[in-house]
Amino acid sequence: MRLYNTLTRGEEPFAPSADNTVRMYTCGLTVYARGHIGNFRTFVCLDVLRRTLKYLCGYRVRQVMNFTDVDDRTINGAQKAGMDLRAYTDQYIAAFREDMRALGLEEIEEMPRATDEPNLRAMANMVAALERNGHTYRSDGSIYFKISTMPGYGKLARLDHQGMKPGARVDSDNYAKEDARDFVLWKGPREGEPSWEFADAGVPAGRPGWHIECSAMALRLLGEAPIDVHAGGIDLVFPHHENEIAQSEGATGKPFSRFWVHVEYLIVDEQKMSKSLGNTYTIPDVVAKGFRPSAVRYLLLSAHYRKQLNFTWESLGSAEKALQRLTDCLARLDLVTAPGSHPNLAPQIARAREAFAAALRDDLNTAAALGAVFELVSAVNAAIDTGDVGLDDVAAIREAFDDVDRVLGVLSLRRVEDECPPVPVDEIERFIEERHAARRRRDFAAADRIRDDLAARGVLLEDSPTGTRWKRK
RNA sequence: GGCGCCGUCGCCAAGAGGUAAGGCAGAGGUCUGCAAAACCUCCACCCCCGGUUCAAAUCCGGGCGGCGCCUCCA
After folding, report:
1. pLDDT digits (tens, 9 = 90+) for A98-144
2. What is the spatial distance, in angstroms and rounded to an integer, between the CA atom of A11 and the C1' atom of B59?
3. How many Å does it take to go from CA A308 to C1' B6?
4. Which of A50, A134, A330, A469 places its Cα 20 to 30 Å from the Cα of A450?
5. Architecture of the structural domain at A2-272
C-alpha cells in the first residue's frame, strides 16, 4: 500500500522490512484520566491501518501500544487522590480497555506499561548506552540528552530554530539543562515521587523521562531497529517523536523507524479537543447522550486521517443514520427468497470491492472507501426492489460486506450493540405479536400505540410483506 | 516572528490537469391502514483575483478566511 511518511513528507510504497511482518509501535495514552474521543481518533485510525495491513495487504502485524503510567500528571493525580500510583493508573487502563472494546479496536499484541520492571530496565540500559556514546550529561541528579551531539536532530519535525519566537513558551520541566532544547532522559529523585535505581547499568535513583519510555519499549518488544512503523497523534511529532529518534539512534547507531504515521486532530468548537482545554468528550459521555460507540467509530472514519475533523453532535447524528443505512440494507437481504443469481450484481460487487481496497491502499482513504460501500448499498437496494437478486447473490453480497467490515470494524460492532437492545428481546417479540393481532382486527390505534411506545423506548418496528422486524433506534 | 495544513452543495466529505463519489438534511413521486425502510426524479462549475494550458476544483503567483505546531498534549 501507499502510506504517507512524516519523515519524508510524502507518500511512499509501504511493505514490511522482513518476514512479511509489520512491526508497528503506537504511542498510547498517558493514564491520568479517561481517554477522550480525540485520543481515540488516533487509535481508531491506527486500528484501521492495522486491519488494512492484515486483511487487505496480507501482512502479519506485531503491534505495541504503551501506557504512560509515570509522569508529572499521573504522579500528581495519584497524590491528589491519595492513591498508590499503580492503583491510580490501573483505573484508567481498565477504562481504556473498556473503551477499546466499545469502539471495536482489535486486540493489540503488546500493551506494556512503562513501570513494568523489564521496561524500566530497558530504559536504564538505553540511558547507559547513550552515556557510553557520549550523548548525555548529568546535572542535579538527572541525566540529559545533549542535542548538540546529534547532527541530524530535527529531521522529523523540521523545525527552524532560528525563527522560533523567543519566549513563546516556557519549559515546564523544572530541571537544570545546559540548552533549552536538551531534554531529560532520567529524572533525579524527588520527595514523594516513585524512584527506581539500576546500579548495574550505572543509572542512579530516579524515574524515566517521557521520551525514553517509548524508545526503549519499542526496541525491547519489536526487536532490532529500524522498526517498520511508528505512529501516534500529530501533536507527538515534536518534541516526543523527534526526541525518540535522537535517543534510539544515539543508542543503537541505526535508524529508528522506517515510517512515521501521524493522525490529525479531532477538533471541537473549532478548537483542538484536549484535556487541558476542558472540551473533551469520552465514550461514556457519548453514550449518555444517546449515541452509540459504533457511530463514533464511523464518524472517525468518515474523514481522511491526515485532515482535521471537527466533531459536532450533529455530525455524530448523521453518522448514526448513515450506519443505519448500511445495516438496513443487510437486513433487507433476509427477505430474498429467490434461488440462483442475476448477472448484474456480480460485477457491481466486484467493482465495489476493488474500489474499497484501492481507496484504503491509497494512504488509508477511509472516506473514499465508505463511498464505494454505499454505492454497493444503492445497487443492492435497487436490485432487491426489482427482484433481481437471488440467494447466491445474497451470499456474495454478505461475503463482500464481511470482508469490508474486517477492515472497517463497524458493522460487527453494531451487531454486538444490537444484541443488547434497550427493551428485552422476548418483550419486543411479545409486543410484535400483540400489534400483529391488533392490525388483523384493524385496530390501528392500538397497533400504533404499541409501535410508538416501543419507539419511545428506543426500539423501531418496520412492517414488510413477510412480517415485522425490529431494530434499535 | 518561523514552519505547516486547510477552504468543494444547507451540514459532513472524497476527488489532485480532462469536465464534480458518497453520507446526512431537503423537494416531488411510488409502495404502506398509517409509518418506517426502499426505489425513482430533483438539488454544486469547487473562497476571491490573476497566470500557465487545447483543457484547472485540481498546477503557479497574490489576496482573504480557518486551524495547528514552535518542548503538558492522541
Report:
1. 999 999 999 999 999 999 999 999 999 999 999 999 999 998 899 99
2. 19
3. 8
4. A330
5. 3-Layer(aba) Sandwich (3.40)
